[in-house]
């Protein structure tokens, strides 16, 4: 009672407070009347109903089933509380119920409404459904295994380089479609990927470009492009003479050359594996010039910008 007495005293002291409370009281009363009138008459409401298709493992739909159906229903206002506060029911369509036997999965408007009526409030009247029908091609043929071609451009930063080939998580995928379409598909491509100024290994999940009238499994693959920092190195390499007859000895001056190249940082301590070669068959025996070209022989794929200094040497031939 003390609290009520305080409120009454406060109302007597403050006309403004009394006006605010009176206003709020009218609002509450109006809301009660509005709710009573609204919840006792028919109301239209759009409901998003999730939909999925229950189908055998060997069947693949060749286009996408809509994720939801927009259903306009008519019902008493108070019943819509069940839609607002309860989980929206979902619709599952059985493949065998709507398979026409010739590669089509068809559900027309009347069948959609009938199926929805079974999962919605039994008192609700379904006015419309969007999309109005579901019509999807399907196939039960086994998938065709085809290679994956990557559409990728990789440009490392100036002092970096691609160290090794692009790696794919898988080199082929399965394509599902009708017999004619499968016969025309011999490879698939990824979406275009372009990366520049790279300073580290690129790892990326890329999607397979869609094919009209077909589905691809899996839809994505992972690619790896090894990128590593490069450093210049130099070393001296003994020149090897090739294709000289057994009775001939070829003396070179100098007998070695300096090799300069760019190497991945991880291979700086490795032996170079580079050879310098003089080919006896390249000699011009009719020329007075006693110089021969020095060629690069074997070179590891990881090395780049390989140069020889000098690029030619003098020679003398001794016959036994």
Work out the helix count.
6
How much is the average pLDDT?
Answer: 83
Q: Using DSSP, what is the number of strands?
A: 25
The termini sit apart by 132 Å
Give the biggest beta sheet: 6 strands, mixed
Unreliable stretches (pLDDT < 50, length at least 5) are none
Secondary-structure-based class equals alpha+beta
Query: Which word captures the global form?
Result: elongated
Assign a percent range to the helix content: 10-25%
Radius of gyration: 40 Å
Q: What percentage of the residues does DSSP assign to strands (E)?
A: 35-45%
Describe this structure in words.
It is a single chain. The protein has 320 residues and is an alpha+beta fold. 19% of the residues lie in helices and 44% in strands. It is built from six helices and 25 strands. It has helices at residues 2-13, 15-39, 80-85, 95-98, 109-117, 179-184, and strands spanning 42-54, 60-61, 68-76, 91-94, 104-107, 125-130, 134-139, 144-149, 152-156, 160-162, 167-168, 172-176, 188-189, 193-198, 202-207, 215-217, 220-225, 227-242, 248-253, 256-264, 276-279, 291-293, 295-296, 304-309, 312-319. The strands form seven sheets. Strands 10, 18, 20, 21, 23 and 24 form a six-stranded mixed beta sheet that branches. A four-stranded mixed beta sheet has the order 4-1-3-6. Helix 1 (2-13) crosses helix 2. The radius of gyration is 40 Å and the shape is elongated. It starts with a helix and ends with a strand. The model has no long low-confidence stretch (mean pLDDT 83).
């Amino acid at each position: 009672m003390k609290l009520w007495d305080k409120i009454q005293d406060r109302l007597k002291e403050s006309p403004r407070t009394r006006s605010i409370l009176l206003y709020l009281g009218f609002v509450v009363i109006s809301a009660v009347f509005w709710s009573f009138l609204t919840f006792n008459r028919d109301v239209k409401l759009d409901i998003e109903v999730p939909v999925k298709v229950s189908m055998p493992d060997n069947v693949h739909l060749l286009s996408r089933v809509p994720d939801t159906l927009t259903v306009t229903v008519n019902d008493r206002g108070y019943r819509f509380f069940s839609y607002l506060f309860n989980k929206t029911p979902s619709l599952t369509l059985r493949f065998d119920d709507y398979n026409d036997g010739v590669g089509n999965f068809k559900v027309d408007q009347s069948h959609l409404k009938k199926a929805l009526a079974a999962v919605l409030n039994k008192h609700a009247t379904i006015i419309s459904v969007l999309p109005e029908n579901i019509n999807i091609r399907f196939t039960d043929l086994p998938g065709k295994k085809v290679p994956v071609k990557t559409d990728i451009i990789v440009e490392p930063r100036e002092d970096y380089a691609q160290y090794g080939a692009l790696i794919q998580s898988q080199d082929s995928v399965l394509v599902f479609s009708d017999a004619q379409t499968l016969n025309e598909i011999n490879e698939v491509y990824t979406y275009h990927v372009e990366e520049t100024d790279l300073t580290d290994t690129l790892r990326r999940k890329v999607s397979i470009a869609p094919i009209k009238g077909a589905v691809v499994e899996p839809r994505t693959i992972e690619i790896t492009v090894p990128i590593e920092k490069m450093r210049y190195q130099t070393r001296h390499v003994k020149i090897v003479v090739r294709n000289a007859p057994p009775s001939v000895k070829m003396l070179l001056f100098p007998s070695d050359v300096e090799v300069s190249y760019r190497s991945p940082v991880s291979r700086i301590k490795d032996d170079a594996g580079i050879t310098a070669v003089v080919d006896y068959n390249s000699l011009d025996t009719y020329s007075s010039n006693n110089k021969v070209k020095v060629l690069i022989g074997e070179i590891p794929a990881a090395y780049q910008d390989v140069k020889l200094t000098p690029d030619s040497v003098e020679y003398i031939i001794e016959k036994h």
